[in-house]
């Protein structure tokens, strides 16, 4: 589904991504692990069009998508979750979902208002879809809650929910479990697995919680110092000398 060929992203003289190559199989839930500073988030940001690469190539189903902006990738079904931006905190959970079909979440408030005007006639259908998404994620009772009042884990579910408002094909989740309690982490894991099984979403998941990775991800890719070190099941990765060294070295 996604192929990354010899990707580099330099910040000045610093090589955050330093010749990474990998493939994401369609229909997989692929885990991306590695020590802090390995370049995982930077790799995501380059694939998702948030940062331009220094060099290298990214293809999606064989088509070159290198350097395409996030809104173009959004229309191709490639989504990266974003934290709920500050200006959306005063809106309800339902409203946060309803603005998604107008464009990639994280766009300016102005663009969102324009989009809202355009889609007003479809509002009832979009609200119905938003309620379906909330039911799927088991947070329908929070529909009228302000986003600001959600717990960390509930916000993560809302971020995931936004990808369900459009027909996503592949979703990139960066540290989906950070600061999330065990119960909600299980809910998030279930949602990811059901979206994968029932709607055919492909996922690439960065997460430090190895139980979470081991439970839902196959294969797992390990990065260190901007490069891909190893790929395999979590057990294979954990037994890999280079992976052990990379973790011990930090
Ligand atoms: P990870 O997500 O694996 O922890 P990151 O991709 O966030 O790693 O960061 C990789 C390295 O690149 C880190 O050393 C980080 O400090 C550096 N880095 C990330 N973004 C920038 C930036 N915008 N400017 C300069 N250095 C950056
Ligand atoms: Mg990171």
From TrEMBL:
Q: Which protein is depicted?
A: ABC transporter ATP-binding protein
Tell me which species this is from: Rhodosalinus sediminis
Q: Name one GO cellular component term.
A: plasma membrane
Q: What is the lineage of its organism?
A: Bacteria, Pseudomonadati, Pseudomonadota, Alphaproteobacteria, Rhodobacterales
Molecular function as annotated in GO:
ATP binding; ATP hydrolysis activity
Q: Which UniProt keywords apply?
A: ATP-binding, Nucleotide-binding, Transport
Per UniProt, residues of the ABC transporter domain are: 2-250
Please give the superkingdom of this protein's source: Bacteria
Instruction: Show the Pfam families listed in the entry.
Output: ABC_tran, BCA_ABC_TP_C
